[in-house]
């Protein structure tokens, strides 16, 4: 038996057995993976064995051993920010070019028979269209898109939504293809990719609560009033009201005092003035949006791992689970990188594919 002699300062000589590589995993299993070991972390495991055994680079070996533990990878709570830096998109050049669409479900059906709200927001002006509906079907989505937006304003260039069947279907695809609109879908279980309309849903939901007075079945009566109030208020990101950016004029409130004088301008003069004003306002709004996007509070202290094709990863279990269920499952193999934070992966054993976000991925380490 080979020993390592240690002489700590001010203490007696310590004689530790030098462990060959063939026995190291057995020692770690006994001191860590056994029920008496508790499956604890690197520092606690290292402190348990360092006074009884020795081998070179013991701490690094313990660290690699724990990284490759499947039980820990599946069940441990990760007490740090989820990985993946914030991916910003440049603001569109014009109003009603890029729209985001989403359904919101009310907790109760109204007296009018409505239980859903279809909200559509403009990426540049933040202007909102919203409509209470009895169902969340593809027909409802296509009708509102065509009748309330395209016919009244113009054909849009990009439509962003989640992957629900009410948006990802032949009817909506036929409509967007007909008008030359490109349809894109958010990453499953990652609502931040469709964040602007999701944020409005949370906003108007809070406002609806304040007007119900206990009568939950009349929520749809206040919807259009809340949308008007939202569109006429200054947006924190752009610095302008959504109505002002969308239509190049201020919304006159029914509570505002009316002017007793009327000024008339030549049509051509007014048109030139409106064009100049719209250009200046939209430039200022785009600049304000870009400035807000430069506030990297989200990215501070956040890792940004990059995965490559054939890398193995664990994927977070996102639907409901109990406290004792696994938090990650897999392993999955990366088969395609769709963007900086968006990947297509395939389960190694069950061979099904799914799209996922870096937030929900964790590297798989082989032992």
UniProtKB/TrEMBL annotation:
Gene3D superfamilies noted in UniProt: 1.10.340.70, Ribonuclease H-like superfamily/Ribonuclease H
SUPFAM superfamilies found in the cross-reference section: Ribonuclease H-like
Example GO molecular function: nucleic acid binding
Gene Ontology BP term (one): DNA integration
Integrase catalytic domain ranges (all copies): 87-250
Membrane-spanning residues: none
Superkingdom of origin organism: Eukaryota
Database matches in InterPro entries: Integrase_cat-core (IPR001584), Integrase_H2C2 (IPR041588), Retrovirus_Pol_polyprotein (IPR050951), RNaseH-like_sf (IPR012337), RNaseH_sf (IPR036397)
Designated name of the protein: Integrase catalytic domain-containing protein
Organism of origin: Didymodactylos carnosus
């Amino acid at each position: 038996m080979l020993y390592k002699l240690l002489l700590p300062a001010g203490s007696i000589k310590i004689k530790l057995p030098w462990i060959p590589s063939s026995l190291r995993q057995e020692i770690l299993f006994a001191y860590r993976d056994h029920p008496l070991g508790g499956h604890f972390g690197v520092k606690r495991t290292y402190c348990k064995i360092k006074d009884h055994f020795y081998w070179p680079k013991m701490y690094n070996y313990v660290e690699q051993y724990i990284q490759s533990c499947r039980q820990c990878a599946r069940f441990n709570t990760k007490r740090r920010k989820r990985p993946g830096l914030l991916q910003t998109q440049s603001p569109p050049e014009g109003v009603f070019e890029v729209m985001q669409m989403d359904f919101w479900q009310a907790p109760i059906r109204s007296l009018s028979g409505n239980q859903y709200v279809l909200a559509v927001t403009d990426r540049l002006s933040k202007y909102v269209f919203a409509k209470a509906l009895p169902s969340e079907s593809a027909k409802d989505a296509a009708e509102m898109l065509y009748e309330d937006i395209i016919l009244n304003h113009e054909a849009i260039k990009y439509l962003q939504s989640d992957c629900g069947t009410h948006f990802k279907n032949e009817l909506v695809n036929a409509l967007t293809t007909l008008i030359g609109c490109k349809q894109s879908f958010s990453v499953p279980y990652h609502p931040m990719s469709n964040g602007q309309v999701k944020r409005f849903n949370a906003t108007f939901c809070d406002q609806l609560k304040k007007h119900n007075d206990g009568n939950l079945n009349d929520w749809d009566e206040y919807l259009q009033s809340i949308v008007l109030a939202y569109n006429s208020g200054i947006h924190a990101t752009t610095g302008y009201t959504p109505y002002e950016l969308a239509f190049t004029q201020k919304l006159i409130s029914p509570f505002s005092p009316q002017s007793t004088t009327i000024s008339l301008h030549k049509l051509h003069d007014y048109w030139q003035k409106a064009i100049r004003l719209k250009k200046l306002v939209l430039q200022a709004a785009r600049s304000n949006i870009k400035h807000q996007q430069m506030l990297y509070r989200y990215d501070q202290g956040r890792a940004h791992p990059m995965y490559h094709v054939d890398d193995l990863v664990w994927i977070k279990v996102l639907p409901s689970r109990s406290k004792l269920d696994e938090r990650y499952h897999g392993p999955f193999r990366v088969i395609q990188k769709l963007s900086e934070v968006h990947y297509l992966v395939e389960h190694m054993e069950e061979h099904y594919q799914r799209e996922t976000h870096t937030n929900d991925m964790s590297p798989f380490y082989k032992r």
